Amino acid sequence: MGKNPEEIPGIIISRLPVYYKHLKQLQESSKEYISSEELSKLTGLSSSLIRKDLSYFGTFGRKSYGYDIYCLFQQLSIIMGFNYQKNLIIVGAGYLGQALAYNKGYEERNYKLKGIFDKNPKLIGLYLNDIIVKPVNKIDEFIKKENIDIAALTVPGGAAQKITDRLVAAGIKGIWDFTEVPLKVPKNVLLEEQNINEGLCKLSCVLNKEFNEEIDQNCEQK
Amino acid sequence: MGKNPEEIPGIIISRLPVYYKHLKQLQESSKEYISSEELSKLTGLSSSLIRKDLSYFGTFGRKSYGYDIYCLFQQLSIIMGFNYQKNLIIVGAGYLGQALAYNKGYEERNYKLKGIFDKNPKLIGLYLNDIIVKPVNKIDEFIKKENIDIAALTVPGGAAQKITDRLVAAGIKGIWDFTEVPLKVPKNVLLEEQNINEGLCKLSCVLNKEFNEEIDQNCEQK
DNA sequence: TAAGTTATGTTAATAATTTAACAAAGAGAT
DNA sequence: ATCTCTTTGTTAAATTATTAACATAACTTA
User: Which residue of A96, A208, B81, B184 could cross-link B99, Cys pair, CB 3.0 to 4.6 Å?
Assistant: First the structure.
């Protein structure tokens, strides 16, 4: 049929990696099928929600068996676009950029790390995971020639918007943004904010809540 | 009053770092007040939603002026628990662990990096951002003695659950999880999954959607 | 001091998401 | 072949989240 104009709800997309992670692990077991009820126990999501999420993309289950683990994993891979190659560059070869250079997650998702760029002369020429760090002034040409789809942005906040504009002008399709500053990109460019420190915010926010509740309880007891 | 038993909805918590980021940047300008309407333009969230989110925590605005940028920033910091110190350790001193050792985000959020652990003898003894890498067998004692609240987990997937159990047994309050595997923790321990590669999933999922739509359109034209 | 603006905080309406319920399909047992 | 059991995919209900509307408060100008 082709559910063309309808966008996949972001909230569903955000759960796909959860299913993916568990199905990947399940493949190491001898289990062949898994029910939505079992998946529910593993993921903490309700079985109803899992069935609904999956049914959004098609009919993958088998009545009274459940889902074929291998097939569902393959289907999810296709849904998440892992079946064709995406070309990636890293912009900023500091500590975080280096960690991304050695990240193990690219291959299974069919991302191909094509280049690493920095403006610091001390880093240029360095090899990271067999890829040489190039000067950032070659970046525009490289994006066009090598058909780069996605740029991981790990530059200091002050430089971020300027380099972003440049990436956009060169035709980048998506930015995997590790900076801490608000970036502006045109609507046709994807911006995926991967703010590391957001996790710290959530953790202390909830810890703080629990901490305050303890205090409240102590007060009430008096 | 004390809104005790009610938990802060996760969806609101997830927007707090967005407000925080923009207010931080706004402090560099000479602006003193900002309206929900202006914040809406910056964040892309509706002004109504912004007012509602903020009103969840109290009455911070001033009629016909808007919000005092500095005060709101301070309030958000308190809400997210940045007003008291959280002690942090990094478990796993590989590339990602090293990047986290040099992460600049701790100080402003009042996280204190107290220790780094690894089992690899080649890494033990190494100094990362002036902190020595210790052997992982000292970790239990360290957590208790140094009152560690949060552990950043950057070990290989295979070792993750085992070390998690150990952290939990030692009394850790939260785990900032960078592994790719599903972890099990008891309900009283916070688990914040900071899966780096989730961003790649979302990016290619949406790119894939657009790619398929282009194909669909080409087919229809025939 | 009154009229006109601005922008909040909150209530009401709408939309999105999740859960619950169940009919239908299929498998296994008798 | 029939009965029972399992588990899906889907429809309906309940819940949660977002947007729109507006009364109220406070500032500005005349």
Answer: A96
Question: Given CA atoms A66, A69, A72, A76 in this order, what sign does their dihedral have?
Answer: positive
Q: What is the pLDDT of residues B187-209, one digit of tens each?
A: 999 999 999 999 999 999 999 87
The reported pLDDT for the residue numbered A6 is 67
Tell if A48 CB is < 7 Å from nucleic strand C. yes
CA distance B161 to B109: 28
CB atoms within 10 A of CB B39: 24
Question: Looking at the predicted structure, is the pLDDT value of residue B221 above 70?
Answer: no
Q: Where does the pLDDT of residue B80 fall: very low under 50, low under 70, confident under 90, or very high at 90 and above?
A: very high
Spatial separation of the C-alpha atoms in residues A194 and A204, rounded to whole Å? 18
CA distances from B189 to A2, A46, A174, A218 (A): 43, 21, 35, 21
Q: Give nucleotides in strand D with any atom < 7 A to a protein C-beta.
A: 5-11, 16-21, 24-27
Per the structure, the residues numbered 1 to 60 in protein chain A that have their CB within 7 angstroms of any atom of strand D are 35-37, 47-48, 51-52, 54-55, 59-60
Residue B193 near residue B177 (C-beta atoms within 8 A): yes
The Cα B103–Cα B90 span in angstroms is 11
Query: Does A205 lie at the interface with B, CB-CB under 8 angstroms?
Result: yes
What are residue B91's phi and psi, to 5 degrees? -110, 110
* Cα distance between residue A185 and residue B200, in whole Å: 18
- For residues B45-79, b (16+ Cβ closer than 10 Å) or e, as one string? beeeebbebbeeeeebbeeeebbbbeebbebbbeb
Angle at A194 between CA A188 and CA A200, to 5 degrees: 150
Under the banding of pLDDT at 50, 70 and 90, the label for residue A219 is very low
Report d(CA B84, CA A104) in Å as an integer.
36
